[in-house]
Known about the structure:
It comes from Pseudomonas versuta. By secondary structure, the chain is an alpha+beta fold. Helix content is 52%, strand content 9%.
Amino acid sequence: MLHSHLTTLNAVSLVLSTFEAEGLPCEALLAGSGIRAADLSRADTRITASQEMQVCANAVALRREIGLELGRRMHVSSYGMLGYALLTSATLGDALRLALRYPALLGTLFELSLKVEGDQVWFCADHYHENPQLAVFNAQLCLVSLTVICQDLLGQPLPLLAARFAHSKPDYHASYASTFDCTRTFEAQDNGFAFARHWLDHPLPLADAITHQAMAERCRKQNLEFTGRQSWLTRIRQLLATQLHAAPGLEGLAEQVNCSPRTLRRHLHDAGCSYQGLLDELRFERAKLLLHETEWPIYQIAETLGFSETASFRHAFVRWSGVAPSQFRA
């Protein structure tokens, strides 16, 4: 099940810019995501991780090795406040251990860990439980971006001793060499890369104790805010998802979570969304599932999602995806 948390358009913009040079219209990459081209110009736009992954799935369909290229463009500056905290750490080891403390800020879909084995260290990414069709893409994106982070922190490439991947060797495996210029193993127990242990103690060129302390504290507060907000938003989504056939409205939902409609509206606004936005998102996700996995007629899907008229559902689906339900199913 894909994470439902909200995120920015950073990764989507990265995907679009990667294909821009080839003249590919952004509509092809946004298809089925519910993201409109007009949304890209708004800095405050928030999307869900599932929408982000749909864009990534479109990119993978066009170029299977795209995760490697995108990972190379994910510099430490892409991680906001956490990036500054990592850059100002005293050593590489301090920076990596800090990153492991805040996976929510790092935005990873894996469980990351540092495993010391004698004179070498493995930076591992394991326990992936998202869309299996994007497992290879996400492994590529994760590991390559981690090597880029290390390079940015050190101000020089981190010499790698070995790399391993949980997926099978792809026919484009030679493309891995530009990032992983070392022994590469496929069909391993997890994903990761190894480097000499002494690099953990290597001083970082931009280390600054005072700035680091301030940035680390802001990361701690941001993580509390982020995880608390997402936990609350997950509860709201779960409640609403069970009532799509008869949506309770803002007032009814507020009563279910024991707060006033005004308070609920404010909390949703702070999370970068709205009641109608969440309802549309959940209906869109369910509609895509039903169109793909059932042979229900369109009118039955419309009724299941709480639409009083089939035409209203068709108009909404075109607004979300850019195509009619029947075209999407085909």
